[in-house]
Amino acid sequence: MAMRRLELRHVRKAFGxxxxxxxxxxxxxxxxxxxxxxxSGAGKSTLFQLLTGAQHGEGEMFFDGTPLDDxxxxxxxxxxxxxxxxxRRILDNTTLGLEVQGIRRKxxxxxxxxxxxxxxxxxFERHFPAQLSGGMRQRxxxxxTVVQERxxxxxxxxxxxxxxxxxxxxxxxxxxxxxxxxxxxxxITHDVREAVFLSDRIYVLSARPxxxxxxxxxxxxxxxxxxxxxxxxxxxxxxxxxxILLNPEPNPHSSKGHDHD
Length: 261
Ligand SMILES: Nc1ncnc2c1ncn2[C@@H]1O[C@H](COP(=O)(O)OP(=O)(O)OP(=O)(O)O)[C@@H](O)[C@H]1O
Hints:
Strand 1 and strand 2 form a beta hairpin. By secondary structure, this protein is α/β, with parallel strands linked by helices. It has nine helices and ten strands. Helix 8 packs across helix 9. Bound molecules: adenosine-5'-triphosphate (ATP). Adenosine-5'-triphosphate binds next to strand 2 and helix 1.
């Protein structure tokens, strides 16, 4: 694996008496695309909250080999919903992360504007979010995330709200963009196909209280294709993951109780 950027060792998190993350150890290498796949409510978003510093847990988190402290410097986070501000034009939505960093709007616009074509948004700079399709809004949200030039992207189910066809188109587009930019990326998703299509490696989570039940390498060549060439290998990996998710082994951590729902 490439040089480790992010490493978590035995990370745990409980909310009051509710054990959410029981034991999470994982790593993401430089320029690697890694996914976390798990059942609904397993604690995937909670894990991202620990990474962004919105919540505090137990265990150890390292970035480039040193304890993770300045969360904002390392991570650019794209939430599940596009979270575009309806009253701001698309150009000024995509500058938001830079403005939060203290960059003046004019300078932020100058940095973002040249990227509109690459993100399929050329000509829509002065539109409002409601005037864009769901896929375009997600591309704008991703643009807002990547221009922050942090060390690593955290993507929380970025395509979950899109219809199946748009989602597939967006996955292809993201894979192409990732090949070009080689972002270090950690994706949360429920979607087995999406994880296999996009990832170099996948961590499969158990149900809550979550631990990692399997790490799966995805040896498919890039560029990835949805065509017949990779179909057999792709569906074999998907079947392996579905089997893990649908026939879980007993969770060694659930004996601690608190698992009420
Ligand atoms: N701030 C909080 N206070 C109390 N409980 C919380 C808090 N945040 C999350 N939880 C609980 O932690 C559990 C995991 O939530 P989380 O959103 O991390 O799961 P998830 O795997 O991202 O779910 P989904 O896939 O449905 O988005 C849930 O039972 C949730 O109710």
